[in-house]
Amino acid sequence: MTPALQSQTLLALCRQASVMPVLVIDELRHAEPLARALIAGGLPVLEVTLRTGCALEAIARIARVPGAHVGAGTVLSAHDAARVKAAGGTFAVSPGATPGLISACVAQGLPLLPGAATASEVMTLIEAGYRILKFFPAVPAGGIPMLSALRGPLPQADFVPTGGISEQTAPDWLRLQNVACVGGSWVAPAAMIRAEDWAGIETRARQAAALKRED
Ligand code: 3PG
After folding, report:
1. Ligand 1-lining residues (CB < 6 angstroms)
2. 17, 138, 172, 202: which could join 37 in a potential S-S bond, CB 3.0 to 4.6 Å?
3. Ligand 1: which of 25, 135, 139, 162 to mutate, judged by most atoms within 8 Å of the beta carbon?
4. Atom 8 in ligand 1: which residue has the minimum CA distance?
5. Using one digit for the tens of pLDDT, what is the confidence trace for 33-73?
6. What residue numbers bound the domain in which 69 lies?
7. What is the CATH number of the domain that holds 158?
8. pTM, whole model, 2 decimals?
């Protein structure tokens, strides 16, 4: 699957909702009720970070929840990409990109949302064929002024800014013309997952799902 086709898949996923929740799942039993709450609230495209021991099994379980589109975050290597594909993840998100990771995602047929934070990184990924990138870490890397400035010389790239975005700031990011959707953990914070507050997470998802991009 070429990088261009991978980007087409990711752009189609981003059109489904303006917010992609970033999920850190510590307990496997939380995976399904968490996914159901987010989908019920209108957010079907979910990123589960590979930072916990049960992340791959959580992805496998969420992949079986009706309506879910689940990908893996913090995918750093070819080995990670293979494990995500085997678990049933439908896309991969990385804080950056390496030639090895790109080759593995091409070989596995796993759509990659590669990370970039500078003009050279964006140019390198455009050269490889990608058209949608994760802008990471969004706020520390320069925030809205930086991403807005990148659009001048690099209008062909769309972004999913992630890292430091909140319910309050998400609308400002979504006003940028080169933002496809925003990512963030604020929709399902660790404390609410620990408390198994699925109704509360569904409410937050509904509020996030109501945010719209400027078209
Ligand atoms: C991450 O990698 O954890 C994401 O960028 C989420 O960042 P956030 O917790 O600031 O939303």
Report:
1. 22, 136, 162-165, 184-186
2. 202
3. 162
4. 163
5. 999 999 999 999 999 999 999 999 999 999 999 999 999 99
6. 3-209
7. 3.20.20.70
8. 0.96
